[in-house]
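Subject: design request, 238 residues
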């Protein structure tokens, strides 16, 4: 596992350097990379996929979904800039891998999953690995989780046709949201939304990506496949 984990870290670092002109940096926050190093990705994939768990690419996890590419998980976490006292909302639990990494970096993670079966699997993994600062619910990601708002950061792991108003409202002044935006299986962009202390927002485009759609009010996909044509040399697709 150690060699596989280190190889994955090396691959992430190499891809960060390759995309530095797009993401504006040639290295990610060391705290983020340490969290990636600590979380065993092989624990979040089905047994038959564990041989490939440390490859820098997405893998199927059942129910028509996948675990995201490690590079994108690390990049989105870095863009979110979580701090130890932060409360984070994640839209799209999926395998739980992104959730677990966030749990290493902040005080509380609230995560919403539309596919109940995936949520149950992830909850079991969290319990088994001892992640105790994660709270999960099944529901419509477009609505967020208003009961625990406001959040210092919000991360969305599926492409929304628009930035949901409910999520902007649930973001604390001074907070950040990382979200892919675009039409299904078309041009999509990873966006960084910043809310200032007066409640005004500004949005930055980071790079092109390929995510399945965030489905509103029903079961549906949520997962990043890979960077888009303007993002990565690794054209892994969905």
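Subject: RE: design request

Done. Sequence follows.
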């Amino acid at each position: 596992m150690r060699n596989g984990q280190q190889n994955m870290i090396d691959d992430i670092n190499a891809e960060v350097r390759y995309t530095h002109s797009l993401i504006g940096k040639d290295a990610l926050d060391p705290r983020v990379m340490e969290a990636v190093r600590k979380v065993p990705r092989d624990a979040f994939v089905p047994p038959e996929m564990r041989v490939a768990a440390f490859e820098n690419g997405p893998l199927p996890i059942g129910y028509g979904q996948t675990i995201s590419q490690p590079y994108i998980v690390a990049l989105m976490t870095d863009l979110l800039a979580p701090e130890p006292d932060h409360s984070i909302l994640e839209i799209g639990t999926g395998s739980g891998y992104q959730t677990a990494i966030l749990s290493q970096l902040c005080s509380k993670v609230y995560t919403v999953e539309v596919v109940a079966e995936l949520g149950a699997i992830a909850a079991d993994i969290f319990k088994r690995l001892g992640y105790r600062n994660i709270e999960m619910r099944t529901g419509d990601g477009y609505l967020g989780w208003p009961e625990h708002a406001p959040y210092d950061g919000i991360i969305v792991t599926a492409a929304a046709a628009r930035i949901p108003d409910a999520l902007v409202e649930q973001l604390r002044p001074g907070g950040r949201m990382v979200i892919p935006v675009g039409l299904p299986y078309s041009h999509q962009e990873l966006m960084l939304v910043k809310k200032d202390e007066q409640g005004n927002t500004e949005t930055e485009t980071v790079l092109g990506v390929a995510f399945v759609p965030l489905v509103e009010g029903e079961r549906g996909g949520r997962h990043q496949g890979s960077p888009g044509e303007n993002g990565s040399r690794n054209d892994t697709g969905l």
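The first strand starts at residue 59 and ends at 62.
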